[in-house]
Design brief:
Layout lengths: L9 E3 L5 H7 L2 E6 L10 H13 L9 E4 L3 H13 L3 E6 L4 H9 L3 E5 L4 H14 L4 E2 L7 H17 L6 E5 L4 H13 L4 E7 L27 E5 L1 H15 L5 H14 L6 E6 L15
Parallel strand pairs: 2-10, 3-4, 3-6, 4-5, 7-8, 7-10, 8-9
Antiparallel strand pairs: 1-2
Amino acid sequence: MEDVIGDTPLVRLQRLPGPENERRGNVLLAKLEGNNPAGSVKDRPAISMIRGAQERGEISPGDTLLEATSGNTGIGLAMAAAISGYPLVIVMPDDASTERVRTMRAFGAELVLTPADGGMEEARDVVTRMEREGRGRVLDQFANPDNPRAHEEGTGPELWRQTGGRITHFVSAMGTTGTITGVSRFLKSRDPGIRIVGAQPAEGSKIPGIRAWPPEYVPRIFDPTAVDETIEVTQDDAEEMARRLAREEGIFGGPSAAGACWTALRVAEEVEGATIVFVVCDRGDRYLSSGVFPD
């Protein structure tokens, strides 16, 4: 199964950019990470973290794996743990969409739900305590270098190859920050002039997969020098863009993917002759019960 993770399609937006971008010579491309076997960009670091821990002798068959996640990493890890034969316990806030919860359980993961008002910060605290109590091994997507490495060695080279080295801007939602950090490392090693742009939530906005962390919870894998610019996106703009992506482009992505698309379109307003790539990090069917998409 892990052999079919990655090499996801890169497709050109046809309608959302509008005639102005065509006049400016801009090309906007969507990286469809929902085509991975468990349905998101997180499949890449999930298998990378398990394989890395195995190779270093940090885990052995039968060990219980622990992870705090708001959704996609949990699903990717549940799939990867099923492939590898490890029991998995996921700790997550109890406001996660029904689809994500049921998908993790379908892969055999055990779920521990924490109060929604504690956010991911509380989930991370709980899983750390569980590890101290000897209840398993935390892979820790927030501090594990195998997370950005999966993108430095996988996603980044794919984008370079798929664009024939013409990529000028890379746009990604910022949550765990593994994607944007790893892709940036590779792309800037090929062309330091490539602009790396992160989508961050505007104040008061709650967008699954896009986070602004309190200082004490900023992921240790994050390299601030890897990101040239951040642009804030509101929850309303992300959700409306999710609906437009589906209706106008036939791309069914979640709110964080749509937030990255909205950001990419903002970038395109300021440039000419650019090849702008953004990550569609998962599929919209994970959010059908969330109210983002109308009945």
